[in-house]
Amino acid sequence: MKKLLALLLALVMVFSLAACSGGNDAEEPSGNEGEEPSGNEGDGGETPSGETDENGLVSWKLGMMDPGAWNATSGPLYAQMEAACEALNVELYYVVAQENSAEGHIAAIQNMIGADCDGIILLNGPLVQGIVQQVADMCDEAGVYWSLSWTKIEEGDGNYEACMNSEYFVSTTYEDDVHSANWCTNLLGELGCTQLCEIGFAAGNATGDMRDQGVQQGLEEYSMELLAEERDQTLTSTSDGGKTIMDRFITSYPQMDGLVIAGMSQFVLSGVVSSLEENNLQDDIQVTCIDFHEYQTQYLESGVLDGIIGGHVVGTYYSLILMANLMNGTPLTEEKALIEDNFIELASYEDALIWDEYGNTGDIYTAEETLNMMQKVNPDFTYEDLLAVVDAYSLDDIVTRAEARA
Amino acid sequence: MSGKTSAPAAARTKSQDAISTAQKVKNIVFTNFPLICLIVIIAFLGIVTSGSLFSSYNVQTILNQMFLYVLGGFGCLFLFAQGGIDLSMAANIGMAAILGARVLEVSIPLGIAVTILTATAVGVIMGLIYAYAKIPVFIQGLGMNFLINGMLYPLCGGRATIPVSRTLTALQSSTTEIIITVVALAIVILAYNYTKFGRECRAIGAGEVAAVQSGINVKRVKTMAFIITGLTCGIVALLTLIRTGSASQTTGANFNFNVMLSMILGGAVMTGGTGVKVRNAIIGAATLIVLQTGLGLWGMNTRIQEIVKGVLFILMIVSTTKLESKIVK
Amino acid sequence: MDKDVILKAEHMYKSFGVTKAVVDFSMELRRGEIHGLIGENGSGKSTFSSMVAGLYKPDSGKMTIDGKEYAPTSTEDAASKRVALVVQEIGTIGSITVAANIFLNKEKQFTNFGMINFAKMQSEARRILDIIGGEHIDPNARTESLNLEDRKLVEIAKAMYCEPEVLIIDETSNALTTRGRRILYQNMRAVRENGGAVLFITHDLNELVQMCDSVTIMRDGVFVTTLEKEDMDIDRMKELMVGRDIADNYYRPDFAPDYQDEVVLKAEDIVSPELHGVSLELHKGEILGIGGLSESGMHELGRILFGVDKADRGTVTVTKSGDHITDPGKAIKNAVGYMSKNRDTEALILNYSIRNNIALPSYDKLRRGGLIHAKEEKELSAKWTEELKVKMRSDEQLCSQLSGGNKQKVVLAKWMGNDSQILIMDCPTRGIDIGVKENIYKLMMQFKREGRSMIMISEELPELLGMSDRVLIMKDGMISHEDMRSPDLTEQKVISHMI
Question: How far apart are CA A337 and CA A326, in angstroms?
Fold first, then answer.
């Protein structure tokens, strides 16, 4: 019996410990529990009626998937989201997907809804897992606004229908993936390459298909030849695999002079680099890739990497602006927004340094700029203004605005 | 053997031998320890989330998320009772779902049949290997898992996800899930506790040699248990298709792991025998999901959630095992 | 008081959980005597001797050697005070050499600069083996390659190496042949002649009377009495052990074979690695005894008769149905039951309740429309536990909590519950105390009267001759001799066919 008591005591202690370290930022629910949206659309539906802050912005709760380990793509994205949420009186609520599967994602979204989130912004999870329709159904049933990112939907596909028919769908943001791959390929052409190899996503991935299209255009434009492709996930999902792939390319195709990494670069790039350095070929084979990488600055400096396109870390931010305006009763648009945002292109070491200084910080858009995109604060701000902000996003834009602030 | 543990002195006189009331209370507490833990966890999380754990949406969510694990636990019960485990379940569900989804595009009844039969067929193969090849059961499961996982991508036919028609996904509702669970529970209670087969499964787990010498056809029982596990995978795959509306290579990911964790949290003994009970599946799945949902609702940092869960799981499992040995009948 | 007293134990207590194994036990061991220690199973003999040998720590109580306080912390500590124990179970490690076993934990004396001098260790092992009478054992052999008897001799060598003044032999002789016993006795006498004392635990009262100078009797962990040589009377000792009168002869009273002509089970020309053409017939109402040495193949025969092991050639047929027994399932269908000699691992599921064990072969009979009828299951268990007087709190108790005799009763209940007409019993009374033994013999007679047939495989000649209608003696995988029940059938007569 004593042991049992001791055990119960231990359980309580574990909870209390956890409470001290984690529970203190658990704020009271924003006070809109039980409020069902009227479903009577037209004015953006019901909005939270929580406490307003000094800017007159209501407080509400935003659900997002837990970012997991930091990487060069999701790191700046979440940093920007956290900063913006703070400025907008939004409580950011993370949920972990226990499994990287459809079931796992659905459970995570259910848990966001159960925790009384007023809005949910997701990345490409629903697209990858094929559950866009299920997300739409869940959110409509619970009356929770939702947005997607990194997700291109087009008329005619099921996902488009799902989003457009969802009462609570707000927006999706996406990038031009034909462009990203095309930029990489063209850059190799500019550098005088003629014989290329490619590392890419496994077939059957919508993003991958677009990127392949981009690569193909570039090949034709510069009359280059594609020697080989590697898409085997068992190889492309580790850095060791990256090294193996590159070693094979080098042995099999001595004439190779360029490599385009159109997918999985976060895993393979460091392996590719070490293979090139071991074979002392960093000057003979040019490399470009899509998606920012942790060591891109260093690689660009040493010249082993010749160009990288990425920086698509602000799509969720635009969705947040749209959703926050909606929550405050001042929707920027009555339409469901489909917004294409820009990549950042780094073609040199200097470019990479600029990104490190201004982009990789979490305040690509500062609190002040963020507030200015709220009609409650800045009644003159319109949807067109937001689209202009989206359109302007580039390395120059980031630097210009940062310097203006200084 | 002059027994060091037997108690002939005590066994002589009944009065001396009777179980004290204190021991009886202990027996009740010890046998139901996982349930007590669950109640404590529910009460605690209910309080710290100011009752939002009990909101109708969250109760529904918890039941919804438990559903497949409970069902999976029911299906694995017979194998668990023998001290066996099927590590190929996740892959099996994935394959059944993918093949099923592709056939569903053509015909719904045919698709349902394919989903269930594919998984059952894998169960048959696993069962025959288990009964006749006599390799360690977890190695066999791992091997089959690799084998099937390797086939998933080609089976997808170059597509990342295979969507399932709306007619099928419309079938999903909490009511259906509850009905399925109740029916499954009734079947499993009868099959596990009151059929020769159910008893034989436990006897094999408790003492295979003695079971053989009591006339149990061990090979048949072992094969059957795997077939039931396979059938369960098929049912789970079909229900997953209905719930998620699509099949992909990740369908069913970690399923066997979660079912195993549920069973153990619910008080099941890994070595099988009488330590495996129907209620393990329900209590364990509830513990797992309530913790996952409740800790999040409480607003605990997601990193710390994982640590807390890990610590709690170890504490609960260690104490369940310790207490089990102190039950005196 | 007596300066001859070497070991004195006073008010010893030891409990395991709720089980009180030894209660307020006191005894003395004098120099120059072989002192028997007897009692039923679970009476605390082994627990007491284990405390003396340093295996267990007493809960309370005091021991002295030559008047000096003695509280051993381990067997090594006990050995340093020249107290040694030869245990009931196998006490050697199979995977190391004989020499390494003898000097286990004493390797230090052969160590030079951290290296063990194996040559020296080996020659020392040779010397000690020669002294104790194990000349035929190679100290370099892997211990598991030795037969059970030689492994026991290695243990005796290990015990004798510390030149013990107190030597404890715990039911060791059970595992030994005549030759092995001779060697054991010779070593016991050697200790006595050197002025030491031997504490000799045995079930064999004849052996006890033959060897011991005095005997202490235990019952339920309590000291009953100590008898000197002149008072040692077998019946009296039995009575003291059990605490009540035991019939003078608990075997069957008649001296003539008595069974029907009908053959119920037939084995024809069974060949397996251990058996070289064995045929036998079992008749209705017959107790067929099969005796021999442990390696004679008789245990393997029992397994093949029940279908646990497969014969390379030959058939086992149940005459009534004409079925060949190929697996236990088939045997059980034909109302054949089998009691393995390995009761704890093969005959019973220890971690299973009494009721579950009893019902195990009978599920087909307990089914009503596919489902097992729980009430009938309970009644079946109640009926047979009562009939066989299994001592228990309830039939939901785990079998692991029962004493050896009660476990055996559960095994019997299991087969009776299935209404077995043919019972193959391998060592049915092994390790069972006299009270329950008598009980089992009575049950066998009852089964016989009911027209059931039994094959009793046993290493104990008295029970074999005492109970069987017909005796088969096996040697080297063949039946070497057959005898009908008669008053003239003596152990001497059959033993010559065994060796």
Answer: 12
pLDDT at A36 over 70: no
pTM score, whole prediction: 0.78
Q: Measure the N-to-C terminal CA separation of chain C; round to a whole number of Å.
A: 49
> What does the radius of gyration of chain B's CA atoms come to, in whole angstroms?
22
pLDDT of amino acid B111: 94
Note every long-range contact of B186-193, with CB atoms under 8 Å and residues 24 or more positions apart, other chains counting.
B188/B74, B188/B77, B188/B278, B189/B278, B190/C371, B191/B78, B192/B77, B192/B78, B192/B81, B192/B278, B193/B278
Q: Are chains C and A touching, using the cut-off of 8 Å on CB pairs and a minimum of 3 such pairs?
A: no
The string of DSSP letters for C51-104 reads: HHTTSS--SEEEEEETTEE---SSHHHHHHTTEEEE-SS--S-TTSBHHHHHTT
B328: nearest CA partner in chain C: C397
Nearest residue on chain C to B18, judged by CA atoms? C393
Tokens representing B188 are 């499993």
Question: Which two structure tokens, joined as six digits, stand for A370?
Answer: 């963020």
Instruction: Looking at the structure, give the CATH architecture of the domain made up of residues A48-176+312-344+362-405.
Output: 3-Layer(aba) Sandwich (3.40)
Angle between the N-to-C axes of helices C178-193 and C148-161, in degrees from 0 to 180, rounded to the nearest 10: 10
**pLDDT greater than 80 at residue B310:** yes
* CA–CA distance, A211 with B175 (Å, rounded to integer): 44
Residue in chain B lying closest to C348 (CA)? B210
pLDDT digits (tens, 9 = 90+) for C409-435: 999 999 999 999 999 999 998 877 777
- Residue B90, CB half-sphere, CA atoms under 13 Å: how many? 22
Residues in chain B: 329
Cα-based angle A109, A114, A118 (whole degrees, multiple of 5):
80
| C-beta atoms of C43 and B2 within 8 A | yes
Q: Label the pairing between strands B246-248 and B161-163.
A: antiparallel
How many angstroms from the chain centroid is the CA of residue C156?
A: 19
The DSSP output letter for B274 is G
- Rounded (10°) CA dihedral A247, A249, A250, A254: 170
A290 pLDDT higher than 90: yes
Residue C495 has pLDDT above 90, yes or no: no
- C-alpha B251/C-alpha B155 separation (Å) is 13
For domain C5-242, the CATH class is alpha beta
Residues of chain B neighbouring A138 (CB-CB closer than 8 A):
none
Q: Round to whole Å and give the CA distance between C379 and C387.
A: 12
In this structure, which CATH number among 3.40.1710.10, 3.40.640.10, 3.40.50.300, 3.40.50.2300 belongs to the domain A192-305?
A: 3.40.50.2300
